[in-house]
Amino acid sequence: MVKETKKAEKKAGAPVKATTEKKKSKKRSETFSLYIYRVLKQVHPDIGISKRSMSIMNSFINDIFEKSCLESSKLVRYGKKRTLSSREVQTSVRLILPGELAKHAVSEGTKAVTKFAS
């Protein structure tokens, strides 16, 4: 229940809500910023990254992720299956990413799946 004070009511002329209500908290947006920063420090420990560059990298990763999801789902439908496996994800990465980048992504993904499974 909301408490109303007589003074506030007389002053404003209308009922006033008390300030004991909680404010709505902002919905946190999930980003890859922390992970981008960690990878940057692994590769180049002495280099930093600006807020604008971080935003661009985050958009890039979200875009690649979305493309990979769409391609993976298409591959599942083409194969008339109902389960998305690592095989479809690997194939979608090979289709989306160019040359050497695809090879590195596939090897890192394979390594991650192997580590997860054991």
Automatic annotation (TrEMBL):
Phylogenetic lineage: Eukaryota, Sar, Alveolata, Ciliophora, Postciliodesmatophora
CDD domains given in the database record: HFD_H2B
Listed Pfam families: Histone (PF00125)
MF (Gene Ontology): DNA binding; protein heterodimerization activity; structural constituent of chromatin
Family: Belongs to the histone H2B family.
Domain of life: Eukaryota
Organism: Stentor coeruleus
Keyword set, alphabetical order: Chromosome, DNA-binding, Nucleosome core, Nucleus
Subunit (UniProt): The nucleosome is a histone octamer containing two molecules each of H2A, H2B, H3 and H4 assembled in one H3-H4 heterotetramer and two H2A-H2B heterodimers. The octamer wraps approximately 147 bp of DNA.
Compartments (UniProt record): Chromosome; Nucleus
Known function: Core component of nucleosome. Nucleosomes wrap and compact DNA into chromatin, limiting DNA accessibility to the cellular machineries which require DNA as a template. Histones thereby play a central role in transcription regulation, DNA repair, DNA replication and chromosomal stability. DNA accessibility is regulated via a complex set of post-translational modifications of histones, also called histone code, and nucleosome remodeling.
Domain Core Histone H2A/H2B/H3 residues, every copy: 20-95
Nucleus among keywords: yes
Name listed for the protein in its UniProt record: Histone H2B
InterPro entries reported for this sequence: H2A/H2B/H3, Histone-fold, Histone_H2B, HISTONE_H2B_site
Residue ranges with Basic and acidic residues bias: 1-12
Statement: the UniProt record of this protein carries the keyword Iron: no
SUPFAM superfamilies named among the record's database cross-references: Histone-fold
Location of region: Disordered: 1-28
GO cellular component, one term: nucleosome
